[in-house]
Amino acid sequence: MVNDAKQAFVSELEKSHGSALRRYLAVRMRNAAADVPDLVQEVFLRLLRLDNHEAIRNSQAYLYTVASHVLHQHALRRAAAGETAAVTDFALEIGRSDSDPALQFELEQQFEQLGERLQQISPKAYATFMLHRCHGLSLQEVSEKIGASYSMTKKYLARALNYIETELEASREAR
Fold this sequence. Notes:
Number of strands: 0
Shape: elongated
Helix content: over 70%
Radius of gyration: 20 Å
């Protein structure tokens, strides 16, 4: 049960930082902006579940810490549920047999460049993505192969998918 003091605390946070929080989440969820209201709600619900909100020294910092945790868990859920839309669209575009050969070549080059950049940024995220998505290994098999825990392997996959999706969205916007 939520007490009045806790509800007032959360209401005050929403009034003073709600629009900035929505912008913060929207920027990080460019390609899934429809999820932003749900994420905002989740942030405030978590704040309502706090046992001792009076112990928070910097409420704004705490709010953004909770928001970043919500974003991270959202990314993990999306990765566990399957490929993100942009990655799926890109894969379908590459796989179309009726594609223009020049376009096919350009897409394949773009995919290789994405892979090279991802490998430089995070070799384990790259390995996880390639083993899971391209070679069909389960996440458990991937975790054993790369020597990481199952939960860390899910995080690597989420990181890879988020990176690829962000890069694909940026390249589409540049066109």
